[in-house]
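Q: My collaborator sent me two sequences in one message, no labels, and asked for predicted structures for both. Can we handle them in order? The first one she listed is below.
A: Yes, handling them in the order given. First sequence, followed by its structure tokens:
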Amino acid sequence: MRRFELKPAYLAAVAGILLLLGLALGASSLRRTSAPTEGDEQVIEAVDDERGDEQETGGFHVAEGGDIDDGLNEDKSVYAEDDPDSIVCFYVTVRYGSEARGTNHTFNEVNSAIRFVDSAHVDNDVYADALVQVGNEEGPQPGMLGYGETESNATIRVRGNSSTTMPQKSYKLSLNDEAGTWRGQSNIALNKHIFDATRVRNKLYFDLAKNLSDVPSERTQFARVFIKDETSGATEFEDYGLFTQIEVPTKKYLANHGLDRAGYLYKVISFNFEPNDLIKNFDDEGFDQAAMDTVISCRGREDNARLLELIEAVNDVTIDINDVLDTYFDRDNYFQWLAFNLLMGNRDTTMQNYYLYSPLNGSKWYIIPWDGDTSLMRNEYQMEDGEKIADWEWGIGNYWGIVLHQRVLKNDRCREELAATVEEMHEWLNKETVDEMLADYYETVEPYLYAMPDYLNLQHTREEVESILATMGDEVEENYANFVDSLDDPMPFWLYDAEPNEDQVRLSWGAAYDFEGSSFTYDVVVSRYPDMRDPLFSQQGLSATEASVPREALGDGEFYWRVVATRSDGQTVPAMNQVGVGEEFYPGVYSFVL
């Protein structure tokens, strides 16, 4: 069996040697984004890794501490025991708990909790008590969590957003303090990945992310889950199929990874780096933590002053974006995170699916990735004939609507730095690597994909699953080509809210952007239908970024409109807006009601 192996024990030494060679050549520092090469395990001598010069003392080489803001300083040895070919079995006995603990619910009530309404996350957490035990397919095993226990040691709830509307659920197990931890973790996230026909994407994403020198990853584990629902009178465990366990970024996560557990940690929920009235400091009048949690959720030190300072700096256009990056971010962390998601085609990383972390006594912010199960998903989307995706979403245009990323991408130096990071990363994050890892994963999960209960809910045939797996490596190459092309593409723009008056409706939009300063014209269409058939109004070749539509041409009701920008060389780009009608989404379209 072919395997793509990475040896965490020598990652730090390899990074140090590469940096030392770069310094010796007088080159600018670009942290390693490539996987270690064969023979690296022979390197045993400590070298300067930019975190402090070494002093020779009595035959020993002692590294100085360096500056706290000189890199992430993650302890990569945390991944040393990961085994992508193994399966861990969780045995969960669900029980009706107490009203005082908020766990007085049946398992049916837990499974019925919907956390996604009108395309938005809602807080609807329903808990029950649980006894969590770990073992193998023969049952709980001695020396493992919960073995021999009879009392509940955890709570259980469903996790995820849109996945909570599906028949198979993902779960969060929260261990009680007295229960101890499992692999240093007290929050055990078990993901079903109901929208991923392969069930391996999240593991692939985070296993690949372990190779990033300046971006932390999460430990993952294929798992089988067996549940005994005592709230319904069950006396035997029922097989709930295949899951992927993933490490949740918490204070324990920071400590396990050698980071500062007393630091600042935020989960990004719907955050675009712009000022938001819901983001205030904890001691400010009118602060509403539940409201702020809908935008960005504090998971570390409860002090938002540093976050507010970051937002202010990002939006201060009088400050050069390079100064913003150098002051508030770690450039290597930022560009590696962005390059990684571009190559993986993980588009759902603009306003969510990552964490922001900053050590208490440092000044830099670092991005921690989260949720990669939409990576390398293009061909599965096409097979399902589902979500329509605009071309600009497969390159840097995907990040254009976020003020931080837009400011970075408008800067020549930053675009060159991103391009260099992508090129270096693509040397190891490519079709060959991905195909090899997928072959390994598929061998592990295959017996469970096509067995009950997962086979019933797979929504694909075995042939379709294997076809999807066979093309995922090709998608990396397609994403790489899309990135290169997008450096020369026009950038999309926003359609703004319509402004009606007695006689006219004013439609306005942002300007399309080109890195070479090319000119654009705009074509506008208004229709009663989101596919823009039977137009009620249209204008072509506008140089202004607005149009006035006579009210008499429209009447009353709901209307849809679209603007397409055309560059001087004929290349077009739509708006970033989209509308959903029923289960269908229409990219580049916006709506208004008269």
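Q: And the one she listed second?
A: Here it is, processed independently of the first:
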Amino acid sequence: MKSLKLYDTTLRDGTQAEDIAFTVEDKIRIAKKLDELGVHYIEGGWPGSNPRDLQFFNEIKNYNLIQAKIAAFSSTAHPHNPPDKDKNIKEVLRAQTPVVTIVGKSWDIHVREALGITLEKNLQIIFETISFLKKHVSEVMFDAEHFFDGFKKNPDYALKIIKIATSAHADWVILCDTNGGSMPHEVQEIIRIVKKERLPVPLGIHCHNDSEMAVANSILAVKEGVTQVQGTINGFGERCGNANLCSIIPNLRLKLGIPCISDEQLTKLRETARFVYELANFQPPNHQPFVGNSAFAHKGGLHVHAIQKKSETYEHIRPELVGNHQRVLLSDLSGKSNIIYKAKDLGIKVGSKDPVVIAALEKLKNLENQGYQFEGAEASFELMLKKALGLQKKYFDLVGFRIISEKRKEDETPLAEATIMIQVGGKIEHTAALGNGPVNALDNAIRKALEKFYPQLKDMELVDYKVRVLSSGEEGTGAKVRVLIESSDNHDKWGTVGLSENIIEASWQALVDSINYKLLKDDQKNAE
């Protein structure tokens, strides 16, 4: 087959997802990342729809991209305007991009009901719009919107649409599953029929994910000879999203052997996925295939024992190929292999018969039985293991703390104040701090007290705080709670856990572990 081209529409279709709004600067940064990943086309937006997209097109000209071509998007001309007088067409030309993508209706119901015109008039609009743009733009793509639904209802008209686009000299015809409801076998069969028409231009595929079939449909389309795949990073898009390039790319590259990007570029896949999540202000889902934290994570002791011998026993690819890495989780399902694996990961040499391993495993199972969870709190586990080995330094001792929560008026927010006394070496520090809640006040107070002795704690911040009630029954508000805290500094993120019937005590345990881990980590770096 001809070389496959990747067309990314994160900056246009992706921004139509609920809760996503990229600034111009965000879009520039994402475009540069996509270019580094090896994407061939980057759809920057619809310049006729908002000033921000036009600003992006003006700004991106100041950057020298490695290989990606920037595409501007627009609909066909309005039925009552010739293309040279149409506002949308004028705006898309103002973007001055080397590629323009035009969307037109290919489902007869949309022509009659949405546009309110005849089927013949729609054909005329498509022909005139593409013909006009070809006089001004070197590469014009035609998105046949709702093509698969249109073909199922009126195949003759759907085929007329893509034939008129080719007769107007479109460089590509993109077959769109706009409602995302087509099944893989339908996509496959329809593309085979289209291929029999022997169109003089290459075909592309653009799928939405409303039936969770977008990736499968895109890959089957490639198997049928389509040479351009459109999608978004992380599957961002309207409703249920678009075809996810973070799954399509490695499947094409590693499973089908199609060289859509280089091996080196493929290793940037996870980095790119997380970068886009960060700019979208979304928490990356752990269970996302290929790029998620859990994609190559192993929990059962039997699994861990097997991957230590041969990773492919429970991994379909090597995680490093997509920039990910193997992880071993710690829980009550863990075996000695998990403990040994994690110890090795921490630079600690222990054997399967080492009494420390047996003791650590027993303690782990007992704590998890009580309600602790170390899957999201590996820093707490590391501290527990190093304490068992006598490698954990005592950085401070608690003398005592007191927290006061006060609400003075009905319409005022409660005020929390924490007073704490700690001992470092032979010195006692007594201080107080306010917070927007008792845990926040306690966090502020302990760090205020310790920063005098450990100034590096100023770089540390609490990123996430989760509370889960573990018991449900007669205990009511006296039930055990588990607190999971995620902390970060300028270099790393780490999780810690605490458990108690008292939410303040559980929070204290997790906070202390978080601080101890930060100090231990810094000591290790300074010793290297």
